[in-house]
Design a protein that fits this description.
By secondary structure, the protein is mainly α. The protein is built from seven helices and no strands. 2% of the residues are buried. Its main location: cytoplasm.
Amino acid sequence: MHSEGRSSEKVPLASEPSKISSPLVHKEEPKLPEIRQGGQFNKVQDLIFKKPTRQTIMNTETLKKIQIDRQFLSDVITETMEELQEEGTFTSLLKALGKERESKMHFYDIIAREENGRKKIKSLQKQLLNVKKERQVEVQNRNEYIAHLKDQLQEMKAKTNMENHYMKRNTELQISQTQKKCSKTEELLLEEIEKLRLKTEEENRIHAEIELFLRKEQQKLEEKLEFWMEKFDKDTEMKQNELNALKSAKASDLAHLQELAKTIREYEQVIIEDRIEKEKTRKKREQDDLELRSIIKLQAWWRGTVVRREIGGFKMPKDKDDSKDVKGKGKEKDKRRGKK
C-alpha cells in the first residue's frame, strides 16, 4: 500500500519537472550510478540536506516533496522491519528500491528530454531571430527598392507627360503640314485630271480616225486575200500535177537506175575476177622466173665447184700458181654467192 501511494504521489512531480531548480537537477545526476550499484536510499536524502543553501531553492513544493519522500522512507523501513521480524527477509525493501529506481530513471529521462527540448527551443529561437533579421533586412531592401521604383515612376510620369505634350504638338504640326501638302497635291491632281481629260478626248478622236482607216485597210486586205486564195488554189493544183508527173518520172528513173546498178555490179564482178586471174598469172610467171634463175645459179655454182675441186674427169689445165689464184677467186665467189 505504501508503494502504491508513493507511485501515485510521484506522478504529478514527473509531469511538472520545470518547477524544480536546475542546480538541484545537475547535482543529483552524478549520484545515479551509486544508487544503481545497490547503495541505500538514505544517501539521497543526505545529499539533498547537505547541499549548500545557495545551490537549493527551498520553496513550498520542495518541502512537500521532502515530506513525501520522508514518509515513504519511514513506511518502507517500517515494512522492512516487520518483514525481518516475521520472515527474516527484506524483499519488500528490494521491491521498493527497484520501483524507486525505475521512477528515478523515468524522472531523469523526462529531465533529459526537457533539457534537449530547451536546447532545441533556444536553437529555434536563434534561428527565428536570424530569420526575423533577414526578413527585416529583406523588407528594408524591398522598401528601398519600392521607393526607388516610385522615384522612377514619378520620373517616367514626368517624362511621359513631356513626351505626350511634345508628341501632341508634333502631331498637330504634322497634321497642318500634311493638310497643306494635301491641298497642293489636290490642286496638282485637278490640273493633271484636266490634262488627262483633254488628252483622252484627243485619243478618242485619233482612235476613231485610226479605226476608220483600219476598216478601209481591212477591206482592201480581204479583197487581196480572196485574190491570193484563188491564186493559191490554182498554183496548188498546178504544182500537184507537176508533182505527180515528177513522181512518175522518178519511178521510171528509179527502175532504170536499178537496172544500171545491177549491170555495174555485174561489170565490177567481171573486172574483179579478171584482175584476180591476171594477178595469179603474174605471180606464176614471177615464180617461174625466180625458179629458173635459181636453177641457173645452182647449176653454175655446181659446175664451178666440180671444176675447182676436180670432181670426176674435170681438171684445171693451168699452173699451180694459176690454180691457186683460181681457187682463191672461186672461194671468194662462193662466199659472195653464199652471202647473196
